[in-house]
Amino acid sequence: MANVVIITGISSGMGRAAALYFKKQGFEVYGGARRVERLVDLQEQGIHTQKLDVTDKLSVRGLVDHVISEEGYIDVLINNAGYGEYGPLEEVPIENAKRQFDVNLFAVDQITQLVLPFMRHQGSGRIVNISSIAGDIYSPLGGWYHATKAGLNMWSDVLDSEVHRFGIRSVVVQPGLTKSEWSTIALNNARKNLLDNSPYSDLVDKLENMFGKINTGATSEELAKVFYRAATDVRPKRRYYHSIVDHGMVVIARSMPNTYRAVLNRLMK
């Protein structure tokens, strides 16, 4: 029997690359996204796709029920769907901040709650939560995004402590900057969330410039292989990184916060 994986957010970027890579490795891959027009070619390559809104419980339940009806079991869940609601904390509408938590954190819990009973019955399973080094580091305009990723990291650790005894593990992948649409969307959101004559408007340009300076982003295909290690390692680690640079930034931010702030200030000039 082939291993079975559910991946959320497979219409583009890391999620799309992961769906293709897991299929290549022999997995039965199930997933979805809101933009169904981007899923047609994935379906043509043998990936099971459907429209999915991770914040809609009925939509999520429909995906899980579909997998169980066809396969009878779920080996891996990859919680990949997410985005960056950037903007000044003084100006981001609270409705947008709540939406950020709904997608990046509460939706993760929602689908995981539906999958866990089947994994517990099997006596095995892997929950792979796609966070970010942004869960440990920070930059201006990313406050709500950073908060969701920090929350996701802690949520995953708590979950792991609860389900480890059932043969299930919950682990975190922390990508750094990626060569994808992510930064463009985050910057567009930052501009959208600025008020007229905002005193923070210059920070958007500075942040865009900083993203350009840190030109070490991984490709989606490279990160798909990190997802795969996190999903299949016999002895899983709590955290997975693409590069020593990504890991190093986390270590510096956590252990030398003043040094991290000084570097950040320099990059934002």
Can you offer a commentary on this structure?
With 269 residues, the protein is of the alpha/beta class. Helix content is 53%, strand content 12%. It contains ten helices and seven strands. The chain has helices at 13-24, 40-44, 57-71, 94-122, 143-163, 182-192, 201-213, 220-232, 244-255, 257-267, and strands spanning 4-8, 28-33, 48-51, 76-79, 125-130, 168-173, 239-240. It has a seven-stranded parallel β-sheet with strand order 3-2-1-4-5-6-7, with helices on both faces. Helix 4 (94-122) links the parallel strand 4 and strand 5 (125-130). Helix 1 crosses helix 8, helix 4 packs parallel to helix 5 (143-163) and helix 9 (244-255) crosses helix 10. The model has no long low-confidence stretch (mean pLDDT 94).
- Our count of helices gives 10
Mean pLDDT across every amino acid position: 94
Largest sheet entry: 7 strands, parallel
Based on CA inertia axes, which overall geometry fits? globular
Our Rg estimate from Cα atoms comes to 18 Å
Number of DSSP-assigned strands: 7
Order of helices and strands: EHEHEHEHEHEHHHEHH
What helical percentage do the residues reach? Answer: 40-55%
Portion in strands: 5-15%
Structural class determined from secondary elements:
alpha/beta
Unreliable runs, pLDDT <50, ≥5 residues?
A: none
Distance between the termini: 55 Å
Q: What is the strand arrangement across the widest sheet?
A: 3-2-1-4-5-6-7
Key phrases:
269 residues; alpha/beta; seven-stranded parallel beta sheet
Summarize the structure.
The chain has helices at 13-24, 40-44, 57-71, 94-122, 143-163, 182-192, 201-213, 220-232, 244-255, 257-267; strands at residues 4-8, 28-33, 48-51, 76-79, 125-130, 168-173, 239-240. It has 269 residues and is α/β, with parallel strands linked by helices.
